[in-house]
Write a sequence for this structure.
């Protein structure tokens, strides 16, 4: 492609191209194609519905971003999503009165999972990819044991509303899904934490060079523990939205951790830490979800879809890596 | 897990050219279609002991004094259908305490190689008077089952093996029967010129392919327009997203055909969320679907692949070891569909959402608690 040209003096156009986020560009291209295939997506309502479905992945990507920025991986997210949905249905048992304390308990479980992940990584010095892989297996096992291998309860309607309710007759936009409001709130908090607080800078410093960060007085251990807590809490949030959107199933979280990591990388986050942006992660998650939607709409057979999906992922990540080297 | 499914799907697709005919066998289609109308023989109200006109196999040579040590090599307990089925089987074992000295279970976790070694270990242990096998895949398990059948009586159920070596192979009518029941109902109930969306779990699984082959054929015969056949991976969120997209594109869909019922409620919710009338739909005998059907007075049918078939192998194994004749070499169980007429008999909001109503377990000890009910 244009990689060869850039060895010489980069043109103004190329410099401009490097300035914009790959994830955003990929998303716009994919979404444009979707909308051509299905014009409903061009309308505000179509876009909001798309956002509603993409919200869990975006939230997961934002949570994962903190761990990646801090130089680690969190592979336990998907299984925590499953545990949240199954646990939510078991605890609430279809009774709307149980919804709010159930959500509280789910967040406590998330807090616990995040703390364990973080402490295993910082105190026991287990590489995060192994620590969270272990957590993935344990959580899957716990969800299976707890539920006996099959969902045993329903999520009450007011729980489901968090992922399913759409306000109608809203001024300007026409409709407003509740989950999009939750999404906006969550992304806002994540962006503020990562880009506007001392903590955010410390995360990036730890991810970039933990030794230097330590010498500079950054509480490396505490920072690392916190990023895993944020990641786990985001997984619980995504689980609540997913359970709300589609109800209880045992496969709900499968593979989501890899999608979240892919979204971060497409959005320009650097694996093993030091560079990350919430805008990028959101754009990455949006493009990934647009890709899934597009491949579905094009009606490609499943195996071909997965092949194309894999190739596009590699291409997107390679291009952002290339841009980073050149930047 | 997901990559495994992906890989399986990829392999299945690559080999489609070679095996496509097997998934759409007109002779088998006709055979199963005929079986749907055969009257069951056997004790009334106990479909797990009934049969659709099989021969009897003499088992005098296996006769030995009890109580018996039974061994069970299980393909997996990896989905709600198998969870309910295995619970049925354990309850059946408990109900036959007098005849059963021990019941040993090996879970192959969905892996052919593990199941082959499980079977070998059982045969070599000398701790099994009879072996029950629910094969993970047909071709891969055939040699292991044949080898085991030389040493001890073997009962196979659910998915089969390519061999007459087992004493009997127990299963309901099959995938074509399921597809025929669902598709015929939908074809009959939707308005003339109506459109149908088909939702499938994943390609390459024989029983699911058979269901779809039968449905596709019925829709073609009746001149029904199938607007799409999509794979959902059995995932609620994906199912809902697909149906939303189709409603968006076509405005109206009259019927939804499903190759398995687990995501039927998610598909229906997509119609609710879009403010569209419910489609004519087939689900399966899971409680969540049956309850939704009853509550919203859907036009629906639930073909089944009954989990009561998990009771039969235990009964058969005991009979074989007692030297009593059993139905074989194939023992076809009835495969009823739940319809508006008998829905009330099966719907039960005390049971978990993915409990399969045709468990045949209502009279067993510890029902409903053992099956997760209240």
């Amino acid at each position: 492609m244009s990689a060869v040209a850039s060895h010489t003096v980069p043109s103004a156009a190329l410099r401009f191209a490097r300035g914009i986020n790959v994830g955003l560009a990929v998303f716009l291209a994919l979404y444009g194609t979707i909308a051509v295939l299905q014009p409903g997506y061009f309308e505000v309502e179509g876009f909001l519905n798309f956002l509603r479905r993409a919200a869990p992945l975006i939230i997961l990507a934002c949570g994962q971003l903190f761990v990646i920025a801090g130089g680690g991986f969190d592979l336990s997210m998907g299984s925590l999503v499953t545990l949240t949905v199954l646990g939510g249905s078991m605890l609430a048992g279809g009774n709307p009165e149980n919804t709010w304390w159930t959500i509280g308990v789910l967040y406590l479980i998330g807090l616990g999972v995040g703390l364990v992940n973080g402490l295993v990584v910082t105190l026991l010095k287990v590489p995060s990819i192994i620590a969270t892989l272990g957590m993935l297996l344990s959580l899957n096992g716990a969800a299976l044991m707890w539920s006996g291998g099959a969902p045993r309860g329903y999520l009450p309607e007011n729980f489901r509303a968090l992922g399913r309710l759409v306000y109608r007759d809203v001024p300007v936009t026409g409709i407003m899904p509740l989950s999009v409001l939750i999404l906006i709130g969550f992304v806002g908090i994540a962006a503020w934490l990562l880009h506007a607080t001392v903590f955010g800078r410390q995360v990036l410093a730890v991810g970039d060079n933990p030794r230097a960060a330590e010498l500079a007085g950054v509480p490396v251990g505490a920072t690392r523990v916190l990023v895993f807590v944020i990641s786990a809490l985001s997984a619980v949030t995504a689980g609540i939205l997913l359970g709300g959107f589609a109800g209880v199933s045992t496969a709900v979280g499968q593979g989501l951790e890899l999608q979240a990591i892919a979204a971060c990388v497409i959005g320009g986050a650097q694996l093993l830490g030091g560079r990350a942006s919430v805008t990028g992660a959101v754009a990455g998650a949006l493009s990934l979800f647009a890709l899934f939607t597009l491949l579905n709409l094009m009606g490609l057979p499943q195996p071909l879809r997965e092949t194309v999906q894999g190739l596009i992922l590699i291409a997107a990540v390679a291009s952002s890596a290339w841009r980073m080297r050149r930047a | 897990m997901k990559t495994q499914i992906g890989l399986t799907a990829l392999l299945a697709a690559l080999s489609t050219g070679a095996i496509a005919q097997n998934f759409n066998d007109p002779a088998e289609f006709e055979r199963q279609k005929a079986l749907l109308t055969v009257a069951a023989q056997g004790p009334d109200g106990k479909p797990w002991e009934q049969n659709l006109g099989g021969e009897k196999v003499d088992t005098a040579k296996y006769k030995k004094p009890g109580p018996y040590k039974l061994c069970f090599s299980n393909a997996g307990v990896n989905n709600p259908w198998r969870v309910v089925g295995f619970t049925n089987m354990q309850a059946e074992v408990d109900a036959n305490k007098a005849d059963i000295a021990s019941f040993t279970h090996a879970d192959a976790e969905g892996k052919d190689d593990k199941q082959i070694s499980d079977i070998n270990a059982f045969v070599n242990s000398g701790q099994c008077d009879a072996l029950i096998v629910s094969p993970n895949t047909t071709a891969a398990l055939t040699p292991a089952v044949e080898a085991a059948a030389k040493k001890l009586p073997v009962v196979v159920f659910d998915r089969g093996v390519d061999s007459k070596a087992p004493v009997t192979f127990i299963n309901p009518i099959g995938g074509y029967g399921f597809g025929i029941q669902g598709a015929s109902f939908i074809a009959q109930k939707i308005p003339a010129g109506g459109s149908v969306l088909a939702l499938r779990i994943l390609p390459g699984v024989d029983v699911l392919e058979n269901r779809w082959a039968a449905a596709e054929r019925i829709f073609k015969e009746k001149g029904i327009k199938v607007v799409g056949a999509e794979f959902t991976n059995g995932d609620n969120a994906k199912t809902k997203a697909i149906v939303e997209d189709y409603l968006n594109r076509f405005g109206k869909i009259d019927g939804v055909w499903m190759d398995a019922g687990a995501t039927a409620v998610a598909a229906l919710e997509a119609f609710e969320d879009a403010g569209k009338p419910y489609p004519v739909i087939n689900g399966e005998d899971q409680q969540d679907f049956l309850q939704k059907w009853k509550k919203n007075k859907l036009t629906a049918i639930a073909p089944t692949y009954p989990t009561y078939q998990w009771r039969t192998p235990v009964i058969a194994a005991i009979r074989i070891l007692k030297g009593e004749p059993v139905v074989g070499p194939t023992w076809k169980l009835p495969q009823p569909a739940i319809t508006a007429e008998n829905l009330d008999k099966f719907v039960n909001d005390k049971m978990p959402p993915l409990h399969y109503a045709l468990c045949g377990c209502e009279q067993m000890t510890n029902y409903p608690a053992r099956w997760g009910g209240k």
In short: Residues 175-301 of chain B form a domain with the Rossmann fold fold (CATH 3.40.50.2300).
